Amino acid sequence: MHLRLRTIVLLAVAVMASAPAFAQSQSQSAPEADASWEMPRLPDGQPDLQGYWTTQTFTPMERPEYLGDQAFYSEEEFALLQSQLTVDGADPLARFVIEIDDPEERARVLDQTHRDEEYVHYDNAIWLATPVPKGLSTRRISLIVDPPNGRIPPRNEQAEARAAAARAARGDRGAFDGYELRPHSERCLNYRYNAPPLQPPSYNDIHHILQTPTHVVIFTEQSTNGPRIVPIDGTPPMSDKIRQWPGDGRGRWEGDTLVVESSHFNDKGAWQGSSRNLKVVERFTRVADDRIHFTFTVEDPATWDRPWSAEVPLMATEGPMYEYACHEGNHDIRHIQEVYRNIERQEAEAARP
User: Fold this and answer.
1) Radius of gyration over alpha carbons of the chain, in Å?
2) DSSP alpha helices (H): ranges in the chain?
3) Domain extents for the chain?
4) Is the pLDDT of residue 18 over 60?
5) What is the 3-state secondary structure (H, E, C) of 230-268?
6) Beta strands 291-299 and 279-288: pairing type?
7) In Å, how far from its chain's centre is CA 62?
8) Do residues 51 and 318 touch, judged by C-beta distance below 8 A?
9) CB neighbours (10 Å) of residue 211?
10) Which of 109, 230, 273, 326 would staple 188 via disulfide (CB 3.0–4.6 Å)?
């Protein structure tokens, strides 16, 4: 289990004091700004996005296929799902339950008392439950809003060719048969939901935003890449020769919306099958004291024949944030491999005539 230790956050840039955090809420629909609400601003006039925010939600990235063309839950459907997902004892990691059509089966799977007896993981409802239970953040059925079917577009021929080449290079070896094949997440190198784009992680889903006149810092609780320090002062992108897990982000203000464009990803992440030419555009607009309207659009002609977009509600929550210290799999890879080599030697000796 990853260590989660309370720390004083040390940032690479001097930042202003965070704005007060507000109680987290779970809205049933896309946010609309109150006409009487005034945008909080910093001394330099920038909209104040600072504070602790959470993306916790059971809303999946893609619309479940059994729901067809339905884009929003009805009031009745939403109420039933909320009551099931937020019940005491529900497993916060069981995000796949949204894919289950039968309400009774969905409730059964959520209740951890019905787990397989061979399941030895810790009780998620104890270790991962939050003061405001994880539910649905909106009545929207998927985070993806474009294409209209709520699904990631199919990968094109270039993407399929890359995937086929990777499979051929691996041969008949499994994902755990060599140090170079083991999953990036197991080695604490990179998680598929590490930004950009900013996405809801399975747990530890707080995002701490801080601002200065020249930079915005987005510090996600569950991340292996450290804080995102985004220049908003016109600093040019880094050299195209430099490639990083989280890419390279540059921000600007369009009215009251913070726009962050990221590129320069490496060849190792392949988020959703993407290539190193992935481009991500994120937009942050504060619409209430307790809500930031956040959307992202991704584009990669070497993977998809069209861009696609998602909407992820950011809801105010309380701090402090906890350190997410993931390193076990990477530090212990030597011993993992030693065990397997010893097993292989023992099997080879036993097979000798």
Assistant:
1) 22
2) 75-85, 103-110, 124-127, 157-170, 328-331, 333-351
3) 3-64+143-328, 74-135
4) no
5) EECCCCCCCCCCCCECCCEEEEEEECCEEEEEEECECCC
6) antiparallel
7) 14
8) no
9) 23
10) 326
